What does this fold into?
Amino acid sequence: MPIQTIPENITVHLGPPDSPAENVTVPFADYVKNVASSEIYPNWPENALRANIYAITTYALNRIYNEWYPSRGYDFDITNSTAFDQAFVKDRDIFENISNIVDELFNDYVVRQGTVNPLFTQFCNGTTSTCAGLSQWGTVDLANSGLTPYQILQRYYGEDIDIINDAPVEDIPESYPGTPLRIGDSGNDVETIQDELNRIRRNYPAIPNIDDPNGVFGTQTEAAVRSFQQIFNLNQTGEVDKATWYRIKRYYVGVKNLSELISEGVTLQEAQVPYENLLQIGSTGTPVRLIQYYLSVIAYFNGAFNIVPITGVYDSTTADAVRAFQEFYGLIPDGIVGRETWNKLSEVYINTVSAIPSDFYGVSAKLYPGYVLSEGMRGQAVTDLQTYLSFIADYINDIPKIPVTGYFGEQTENAVQTFQRLFGIEPSGAVSAVTWNEIAKQYDFLVATET
It folds into this structure.
């Protein structure tokens, strides 16, 4: 779930988690109104009602944010069983004053100061049951004594709480990226898994550390995933499929106690993502160049598309090319590259390159293989990369001459970084499409010069 975002809808299981009960999907605000009308009384003081509605809203958001039930294999966000969650009665009447307050407050929620995740706002009625969190009946006495809703919440959850106000409402898809993450992949989803595995490692030290969680799925990440899969009895593929993704989520939430009143919380720095989730008109930089490169290669082999200039600026030409691609492959033609479009674009690119016969290239450099090359990797793509860099080094003295071994070691990484610095690319040492394309261009130019 994106930070400080309220879901448009929530799916409620009408019974305990393992019961064969119905799932109902309702607007999130309607869910809060229903729970509030089921849990508290409309004639309570308004400040008590408001404090309880903050707690009800935040509790549900905590379940959604942590993907508590999806990470356990369920197809819903929350139950209506008070043994597990909070009361929800399908099709019940809603109290008018509660409805009005919820309309005002449903996109506000409680956090611990210094964190951004919705707090686990545990509560109980305070009469027949008690707990470490809020007492529903206790809020009445506190409101009658003159406390504000915020002060009431502080009495139960501590002085160090804040309230996030007016969070945007968005459609929130499941967090799983839709396709397995594997060696050579890159982006926010990879960095998320790297950070979560490193945190889980503090409780399960058999998992090897990922030294540089940089969003590139390299050999260290593969080793950490494989070790996690071994510990938790999953198929040891080294790839993050849906089962592994949600098992990692489950244990990350567990070790950080994110679904407990006392939790580590998620800081703003931990929640920030380094890459844009949506590429659209106005976006710039390496991710845009990557999209343009993929579109251009696909267009070269498919006459239905036009080749796109690789400028790094997402302009109307790029948007039109994306829209044409989306229409061709049955996606919503909005001209924006989100997760679904990116997955399809990557799939089509890889399939296109894989179908090219080996004699197509002649003496020219091959097209980007479709995955990021980084230290520790082996294979034909590494051999090709080293061949091109070694040849270029004969002409550009600043680039160190490297042996062609098929193994991406420290020497290769240093040569890549040098090349990247010389050609104005971020010197990450990893070879994505942008770096590969520039290396290929220089190699082809020098080969043509020789002949």
